[in-house]
Amino acid sequence: MNIILLGAPGAGKGTQAAYLVQKYGFPHISTGDIFRSNIKQRTEIGVLAKSFIDKGQLVPDEVTCKIVELRLAEDDCKNGFLLDGFPRTVNQAEALSKIADIDYVIDIEIPFARLLHRLTGRRVCPKCNASYHVDFLNGNNVCECGAELIHRDDDTEETVSKRINVYTNQTQPLIDYYKQRGKLISVNGDQSVEEVFAEIVAKLG
Ligand code: AMP
Is residue 128 in a domain? Predict the structure, then answer.
């Protein structure tokens, strides 16, 4: 199965991706994670990506599409993959259609009012990418894997607002794009992580 996870920043794509990978075993390809890993290693791509990510903007399509093309050509993607955070523009979706057939696009729907609170309170693990919310941490800033949690640089209120605008203008059109192609599965993201996951699994059939 080749699957895309769609949804606004903060909709819970990363969390659901981890559940899906555990159940189905396919590789999880998150362009955001790939960029963050490049930033950490100070590669040329990392330096370029950071200049866009810090402003809440999208990294240019040429760079992003190339990274995904190379990643999907790797052996572990032959029997299916889960794309998280890609495509984010119609142009990227068109580029993807030339290199892979997509079976399902899962759109995690969430009221926009929830996103700001979710993202500004989000704490992530730099080691295993797990995601938490300060409301449930009780001041304990440590991941299950033992690493110290961090507040992503682009999870500040100002950058989050910009990212939500970018999503509305550039990524939301993909919902219609994939609906027209009969690929779209919509799930209610405004419920517990387990309930969202159960809905996805039921709809994947
Ligand atoms: P994410 O972790 O998916 O929220 O991505 C974090 C940031 O990385 C985004 O706000 C973008 O700046 C950049 N990014 C991730 N995926 C893409 C993409 N498909 N196209 C362009 N920029 C991306």
Answer: no
Q: What residues are in contact with ligand 1 under a 6 Å CB criterion?
A: 9, 31-32, 35, 52-53, 57-59, 64, 85-88, 92, 154, 163
Which two tokens mark 69?
Answer: 């093309």
Gap from CA of 176 to ligand 1 centroid (Å): 20
Q: Which of 71, 152, 162, 183 is catalytic?
A: 152
Q: How many domains does the chain have?
A: 1
Residue 190, domain extent:
2-112+157-204
Whether 96 contacts 86, CB under 8 Å: yes
119 occurs within a structural domain: no
pTM to 2 decimals? 0.92
Over residues 160-193, the pLDDT tens digits come to: 999 999 999 999 999 999 999 999 999 999 999 9
Q: CA angle, 28 as apex, 23 and 30 as ends, to 5°?
A: 145
Atom of ligand 1 nearest to the CA of 9: 4
In a domain, 38, yes or no: yes
Domain CATH for 60: 3.40.50.300
In a domain, 133, yes or no: no
First and final C-alpha spacing in the chain: 12
**How far apart are the CA of 85 and the centre of ligand 1, in A?**
6
**pLDDT band at residue 205, thresholds of 50, 70 and 90?**
confident
Phi, psi of 101 (to 5 degrees): -95, 130
Asked about 13 being catalytic, the answer comes back as yes
Q: Is residue 112 pLDDT above 90, yes or no?
A: no
